[in-house]
Each structure stands twice: as C-alpha cells, then as structure tokens.
Amino acid sequence: MTALADRIHPAINAGELVVSGVSKSYGATQLRKEVVGDCSFTIERGKLTVMIGPSGCGKSTIIRLLAGFERPTAGTVALDGQPVTGPDRDRLVVFQETALFPWMTTYDNILYGPRARGEVTKQAVDLAEFLLAKVGLQDFRDKYPGQLSGGMQRRAELARAMVNNPKVMILDEPFRGLDAMTKELMWEYYARLFEEYHRTNFFVTTDIDEAVYLADRLLIMSNTPTQVRAVVEVDLPRPRRLSDLVESDRANEIKREALSILHAEAMRSFARGSKAAADFVDAYLKRANRS
Amino acid sequence: MATRLNKILTSSVFWRGVISIVLFLVLWELGARSKQWMAPEYFAPLKAFLGALGFKKDYLPWIGVVPAPSAVLAAWTDVLTSAGYWTSWYMSFFRVMGGFIAAMLIGIPFGLALAVSRTAYGTLFPTFEVLRPIPPLAWVPASIIFWPTQELSITFVTFLGAFYTIVINVLGGARSIDQRYFQAAQSMGSSSWDIFRRVILPGTLPSIVVGSAVGMGITWEVVVAAEMISGGGSQAAGGGGGLGFFIWNSYVGGSYEQIVVGMISIGIAGYLSSELLRALGKYVTPWLRVR
C-alpha cells in the first residue's frame, strides 16, 4: 500500500471556471420562466467554492450549465479561458444521492472514465487502485453499489470522479440524504481530500454548517432568477476540525453573516409569495433559536 | 450442500408446501371416487340435496367426473413408454423455443431502437401499437394462409405471443433509466456507443428478463391453443402434434385420463421453461441478486 502511495502522484491540474452574464430560461415564449438571470461569478483555481441558496433557487440549473449538459440562453461559461460547449471530463459532476452504476462493481465504476476514453493504462489502473485504498474501499472492490452503505457509496463516487483528474470537480449536494453522523464524517473526509490535493472544487448545498465548514469562498445565491447575492471569504485555518463549527468565534461570525444575508433574501421573496422562501424562513428561525 | 438440504427439510415452509399438495391430491382422489363411496343408502340425504340443487345425484358435482389422480398416474405410466407422447413434448418445446428465441432476437433490438432513436420511434411505434392489441390467436387462420408450412405458422403465432411483451418491456426499461447515469457517463467522456453498451444495455437487462419471463408464459398459452386449432401440424399417426394436440386428441378419443396427463405435462413444461429463464436472468443480472 505504502509502496503504491509513494509511486502515485495524481497529476493535479486545477482549473478556473468563469461564469459571466449567464441567463437561462425555460419554456415557450409566452410562459417563459427565467431561472438564472445575468449571473456572474468565478470558481477560483485550487479553491473550494461553496454555493448556498434556498432550495428551488436554480442551483441545479447552474450545475447543468457548468457541466455543459445545457447551454445558457445568454452569457458564457469558460474554463481557463476556453468556452464550455458540452460535457467533458474536465468538469466532472458528483450527483445528488448517488449516480454510481448499479450494474457495475465498485472497481468497475471507478474505472468507468478511463475505459470510456480508452485510457486504461498501467498508470490509470494504479491510480484507480490508489484511490480505492484512499477512500477505504479495497475490501469492497467487487461489491455492487447496492451492497454498500450510503457513506461508502459517496466515497466510491468521489473516487470515480477523481480518477479522471478533472480540472474542476462539481458536487451537487453530494451528502444529501445521509444521516447526521455519516454526513459529518463525510465532511471531514472530504475536507481532508481537498486539503491534500487542492483541486478546484465547486460544492452546492443548502446546509449552512456544511457550507461554512468546507468553504474557502461562499457564494450566497438569491431566489429565482438566480444571481450571486454575496460572496463571503471563509478565512478559517486549514486543516479544519468539526469542533471549529461550535467553538470558533470566527466560524460563528461567518455563519451569522451568511444566515442574515440568506434571511434577508428569503424575506424578500417571501413578500413576493414564494413557498420555498417561506419554508426557508421557518428553518432559519428554528436554527437561530437553537444557537 | 448437505446443510442446505437440511435447512429445507427442517423448514416449516417446505412442509407446509408438501402438506398442501398431498391434501390437494387426497381431496381430488376422494372427489373423483365419489360415485363409489356415495353408493350406500345412508348418503341418500346428500343425494337428495344435490338433486334439489339441480346436479346429478350419483356423485359430487364437477369433481365426480374428473379422472382420479391414481387413474391419471396409471395412464401416465402407460404413455411414458409411447413415442408419441415424447414427440408431443418435443414438438411443443421446439415451437415454444423457436418462437421465443425469434421474439428475443427481433424484439430486444427493436425495443432498444425504439428507445434510443426518435426517428425509429416516430415511424415504427404507431404501427406496432395498432397491431399489438390483436390477440396472437386471432392470427392463426391468417398465418396458416401466409406461411408455407403448418409448423412455421404455429411458430409464428408463438413468436407474436412473446414479441409484444418483450418489446414493451425493453422500451419501458430503457426509458426509465435515470437521467443522471447518462449525464455521469457523458461527463466522464463516454461516446454514444459506449453509453449504449455500458449504460443502456445493462440498465435495460432487468426489464428484458422480466419481459422474457412474461413472454415465455404467454408463449405456452399460445402454443397449446394454436396446436388445438390448427390440428397439431403434422397429422401423422402416433400424435406428433405437440402437447396441445395431445390433449385435443385425448378428448376426441375419449381418454379423459390422458387429458389430465397432457394438462399436467404442460404445467411441468411451463414450469421448467420459466425456471430455466429465471436461472439465466439471475446469471445476467448479478447486481440484483446481492441485496
């Protein structure tokens, strides 16, 4: 194991994604609904950018635009200056819940990308082997996703993405649906992975604790049509510990700041009658009363 | 193996099954012999009661005219040594397998084509949907006219029995594959052919297995009826017309025990084919076996 770890140095090639003036509308002309409206932000090189916003605000649409599954109605998305025209291994998406192929073993799932591109070299196999160990699933290599626990599935999914050495990793609420305990373990686990390699990561969530614990930069989104309402630099030292979330004054300060922006945003839409916003205000008030 | 057998022999489910079958056979035997045991004078009230209800007085209604299991067994042992009986088996199996395999060979690619190609769907599906509600047996006279030999026309009708079910299942199965699997595959650099081979095909396999199992059941129903209607194909003496014709022939010849022998034979044949199919299905979808 150590021998392998010594030999393998994943070639980290961190990219920078620039979103400028992007809009996305759906529907026929008469009933057109703008989900993303003139939205601009940068996912900085080697940083972990977290996007947080009320549910139903269009975060998933932004992910589809970044990944290239859909094209923006207006504006551009560019990776290191090159406009994004379609899906590519440069910008890999880790999906909500899990998108591991149920009919493939853990090992085959991880090797999916290299095989798809016909790049099953010694190097790729070694890297897959290394990542399999890295996510602690050596003993589960021949198991199917249905035989893995929720946490294991997410780890396998992370390995499946990393084996492709993407320039940007895009994570769409990857830990949603896990129990609280497993979720916190996954935060720590994922933070260690990030701190080790410093890939460019873009992480979407609705959970403020998750956001503050993980982020270098926090993008706080408005309701539809989505725009960046505020950018908060999370200058907490790394490596981070879960206890920081409770003990660190700075962490709590950032959390309060972020929440007050989110709250203001929610109230604004609430006045306009958004159900999602009303739910969000409820959740916010509950959380505020607790802390 | 020995422990597994032990487990079965000590399980209450197994013995409940045995008791159920034995009880069924005993009641059947008793019912079938009701003419004999109802002869004594003290059954007169029962006979009067049956008469009042409009039944024959001498035996229990329905079951009293059915051959007893012991008589069926005797007829069966007689028939076991006759070549005609085994030819019937062979003929029916041959037709079922021929029609079924043809239905798989044509139905699976056809269903997949409908699922992946909008053009194929648009041009072929409407015709398919118009023809689908026609019961396979309604095709018997037409197919006798169309096809050069009786054999081919029966096989064609059995083919139809399985074909529609397989196509509908393949189409539905391929369509219900989660969108995220396609997006994940695309972003890892999969080509269309690669996605077809490693996502659509395995993703559809469970539906293919289900469609085949249902199709196989329909095939047996259809072959028996087709053999009865068409007179069993080769009218050569000795009964070379399949199990359906075997039953019909026994009926015409007044050998009621043989009718039941034929019925049970078809039951066994159908059971064997679906077991075979189930084993095959488990083999090709190992990921469904393991939860």
Brief write-up:
Chain A has 291 residues and is of the alpha/beta class. Chain A has eleven helices and ten strands. Chain B has 291 residues and is mainly alpha-helical.
Describe this structure in words.
The complex is a heterodimer of chains A (291) and B (291). Chain A is α/β, with parallel strands linked by helices. Chain A has two domains: 8-90 and 175-290, 3-Layer(aba) Sandwich (Rossmann fold), CATH 3.40.50; 94-165, no CATH class. Chain A contains eleven helices and ten strands. Chain A has helices spanning 2-7, 59-67, 106-110, 112-116, 122-134, 150-162, 180-197, 208-214, 244-247, 249-271, 275-290; strands spanning 17-26, 33-43, 48-52, 74-79, 82-83, 91-94, 168-172, 200-205, 217-221, 228-233. In chain A, α5 packs antiparallel against α6, α8 crosses α10 (249-271) and α10 runs antiparallel to α11 (275-290). Chain A is globular. Chain A starts with a helix and ends with a helix. The model of chain A has no long low-confidence stretch (mean pLDDT 86). Chain B has two domains: 1-59, no CATH class; 67-289, MetI-like fold. In chain B, 78% of the residues lie in helices and 0% in strands. By secondary structure, chain B is mostly helical. Chain B has helices spanning 2-10, 12-32, 34-37, 44-52, 69-80, 83-116, 118-131, 140-146, 150-175, 179-187, 192-230, 242-252, 256-284, 286-289. The longest helix of chain B is centred in the C-terminal third of the chain and has 39 residues, at 192-230. Mean pLDDT of chain B is 88; it is low at 233-239. Classes of the chains: A alpha/beta (291), B mainly alpha (291). The A-B interface holds A 67-69, 87-89, 91-93, 95, 99, 101-104, 112-113, 115-117, 143-147, 160, 164 and B 178, 180-181, 183-191, 194, 198-199, 202-203, 205, 285-288, 290-291.
